[in-house]
Amino acid sequence: MGIKNERLRWQLASGVLKAVHLERLANRYSRRAVMAGFNFVNGGLSIALVAFIALVTQEAFIFPSLGATAFILFYVPMAQPASPKNTLCGHLIGALMGLLALYLFGLQDSPSAFTTHVDLPRVGAAALSLGLTSCLMVLLKVAHPPAGATALIVSLGLMPNPSQLPILMAGVLVLLVHAFLMNRLSGIPYPLWSSSTAGPALSLSPERT
């Protein structure tokens, strides 16, 4: 699995370079350097895109767990946690469980734990939100690790308003659209919904270090 992921990562980076007529970079530099640069550009670009939308709309399209999602989408694009199904469902579960925990512990109108302090109700809300998120992602087979951070973001009071949920999910969708375009541009069969297959076998020549 490690070798297969490495092949896919290299295909993604080299495929995009070829599509934009910069394939000479893949021949000039080591694979590690090319893939590191590719992740730098795509990770930064994807978050910049979401942040710019947040700037224009003055809405909370950008939130911390999107950073981890962006990394997964471009580093292991064919892994099940990187699929649109897992990404969307995982973040939705995390946000909903965060909201549920806020209301169960009566914290829906309380200021964020980062502006005041952490008390026992906040401890309970954080623990419950993450526990429920982990449980449901396993039960529903939609594991997406960054969704655990989304649960905590909500339960700690950073995004406590239910009206922010559609905006949060729109930010996730923007990342997925970007990942779909970049992966398909490179020739990787990134799924429309779920990664039911591992993708085609790819040749792997020795890495230049």
What does this structure look like?
- The protein is mainly α.
- Helices cover 64% and strands 0% of the residues.
- The protein contains eight helices and no strands.
- The protein has helices at residues 2-19, 24-28, 31-57, 65-75, 84-104, 120-139, 146-155, 165-185.
- Helix 1 (2-19) packs across helix 3 and helix 5 (84-104) runs antiparallel to helix 8.
- The two termini are 21 Å apart.
The end-to-end distance, rounded to whole angstroms, is 21 Å
Global shape: elongated
Beta-strand percent range: under 5%
Number of strands: 0
H-E order? HHHHHHHH
Discrete helix count: 8
Which ranges are low-confidence, i.e. pLDDT below 50, for 5 or more consecutive residues?
197-209
Instruction: Tell me the Rg in angstroms.
Output: 19 Å
Structural class: mainly alpha
Describe the biggest sheet? none
Mean pLDDT: 85
Specify the helix fraction band.
55-70%
